[in-house]
Amino acid sequence: MAESAAIVVRDLSRSFPGVKAVDGLSFDVKHGEIFGLVGPDGAGKTTTMRILAGILLPDSGTAEVAGFDVVHHPERVKQQISYMSQRFGLYEDLTVDENIRFCAEVFDVKRTVYKQRSEQLLQAADMQSFRQRLAGKLSGGMKQKLGLICALIHTPRVLLLDEPTNGVDPVSRRDFWKILYSLLGEGVAILASTAYLDEAERCHRVALVHEGRLLFCDQPNRLKRKLQNRVIAVTTSDPRGARAAIAETDGVRSVVLVGDGMHLLVDDAARLMPSLSGRMDAAHIPYSSVEAVTASLDDVFVNAVESDEEVAHG
After folding, report:
1. Segment 35-50 mean pLDDT
2. 78 has a pLDDT exceeding 50
3. Over pLDDT 90: what percentage of the chain?
4. Where is the domain boundary, 183, 200, 219?
5. Which of 74, 85, 102, 116 could pair covalently with 54 via S-S, beta carbons 3.0-4.6 A apart?
6. Which of 219, 251, 286 is the C-terminal boundary of a domain?
7. Residues in contact with 200: Cβ distance below 8 Å, sequence separation at least 6, in sequence order
8. What percent of the residues of the chain are helix, what percent strand, and what percent coil, each to the nearest 5?
9. pLDDT band (50, 70, 90) for residue 107
10. Which residues, in sequence order, are CB contacts of 222 under 8 Å at separation 6+?
11. Is there a contact between 202 and 214 (Cβ–Cβ < 8 Å)?
């Protein structure tokens, strides 16, 4: 395993009756890096997380976490990680402080160490004033932040987060990510799965997965540059009519409705913009702008999924 890698996954596969959840997945996560495993529901993110946490065995392939093979040394892996699943797993009839203390005792954290780290994490999460509140009385976002604090109380080398901010309010999500960034100086490797492509922008690198397969793995900005001069934004009060008017244009690969218009993935933006305007004029579709724009991760993912499906179906 490379010295700088905290997680190494090679050709990982796992099937369940009727579905291949993980299909030959390979990626690395470095120390001091936030790595995003990005994809929709059913992409294989949770299965991958459970394999890396030593909870689920793969059918084939290998995975090493913090230097230990997840198949041959799962207990050694569990000593080095914290795994935070999608559902709140703490004790709702205990207070915030009591939950943190319980987790510290489970991991045999010395009292002086736990006290200092607890103060730091509660401050970072803006939860000092909630220390005596029962966990069951916290909001969804507060519960997730408490879960993260408990997952970090023993200073793990690797942090596995399975869709940690799903359904979390924007303020709590901001606090959550603030805590994650504060860990980077400690050299913690963070693998976070998410279906939110805007959230993936916060990661140092992302792996885009679809139906268990890896589509791309790179820095978000580098992924977006792959679609330079290939995305057109159309602003219109009638996006559905505009889509019908231009969807069959040669060179238009896909059309996605967004906000007050749509994004088009095309072969050549500069060449196609005049003809798109002409088609909408001919169909009497009102629009205020047709312009080439910088690709988003949504555009990258749509392009990758469509290319993957074209290959799969010949």
Report:
1. 95
2. yes
3. 70
4. 219
5. 74
6. 219
7. 36, 38, 194, 206, 220, 297
8. 40, 30, 35
9. confident
10. none
11. no
Q: How far apart are CA 215 and CA 201, in angstroms?
A: 17
CATH number at 44 reads: 3.40.50.300
Q: CB of 25 within 8 A of CB of 44?
A: yes
Q: What is the DSSP string of 26-85?
A: EEEEETT-EEEEE--TTSSHHHHHHHHTTSS--SEEEEEETTEETTT-HHHHHHHEEEE-
The mean pLDDT value for 8-14 works out to: 98
Q: Are residues 259 and 290 in the same domain?
A: yes
Greatest CA separation found in the chain?
Answer: 74
Are the beta carbons of 236 and 262 closer than 8 angstroms?
yes
Residue 147 lies in a domain: yes
Angle among Cα 95, 98, 101 to the nearest 5 degrees reads 155
Query: Residue 142 in contact with residue 95, Cβ under 8 Å?
Result: no
pTM, entire model: 0.86
Q: What is the pLDDT of residue 311?
A: 56
Q: How many CA within 13 A on the CB side of residue 228? A: 5
- Given this model, what pLDDT does residue 168 score? 80
The DSSP output letter for 238 is: -
The SS3 call for residue 21 is strand
Residue 212 covered by a domain: yes
313 occurs within a structural domain: no
Residues in the chain: 314
Range of the structural domain that residue 105 is part of: 5-219
Statement to judge: residues 126 and 236 lie in one domain: no
